[in-house]
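note to self: dont lose this again. the chain is below, predicted strucutre after it. 294 aa total, dont forget to put it in the shared folder this time
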Amino acid sequence: MAAMRQMTDATLIVVNYNKAPYTRACLESVLAAEPVPTQIVAIDNGSTDGTREYLEECFPELAEKQGVSFELITNPENIGACTARNQGLERAEGRYIAFLDNDVLVRTRRWLAGLIETLEMSEDVGIVGPKLVYPFPPYRIQEAGVAFSPNGRVRYLGRGEPRDSADFNVRREVQALISACWVMKRMVPDQIGGLDEVFNPAQFEDFDFCYRARSRGWKVLYEPAVEMYHFESVTTDGSPDVNYRYITVKNGMEFKRRWQAMLREEKGAAESECQWVKLETRPIEQTGIPPMID
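---
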């Protein structure tokens, strides 16, 4: 009989739409980390590549062996990440709730405990996110929090910088995080509601959620001591039924319209700093499963 794993009272919500190799690697890395969440809720948005079969036939047994409660929600089609995550929020039982994209893998073994420890530093800290790094050497930073110019242009902090850069190895309050990986107190969605489904299928819903939380007095923090691998854009790429270029522009305009007053008041990023930097990405078939660190 396997030894009982260390657990923490958290619900992990993962949305899947195809990309079976990533979903498998993501979830199995979570089970290999320490501690494990008490509950995992996976929402499958109509996958046709074997993802659903893996979630129905293989993963439940793996979760059970680790003492993790697993629940699968299956949708007949891609209903959008916002709606799917809200389905997960309705089933969440944990004191803490984590969002994890299915193209994110654990790098720091104690990732969940590390983010929760930062959450508990102060009563007004509501959401904490890790340092996201590319899943191949030299593991450069992909995102270390998000900043905005007064006009609402986006700057992904630390993008392309060395992972040990002093500028991005300091815990700090940020304007927003991307929801590829974050942990929040369940009091936050209990108070402000779930993701706004006007942003379906995805893009800017996480920024809007952070601003809604901050407008209610919650702080959003970046925690550099926790690192996670992110295969950039896997979750949204390769979806021929969705025009993500159009969706990004449309949702970006809605975000700016909602928060223009707050954006102008904040001392955010300079307009010149908000340039998208295109960097090399590699699929999991090339990288393999990157190593976990203690």
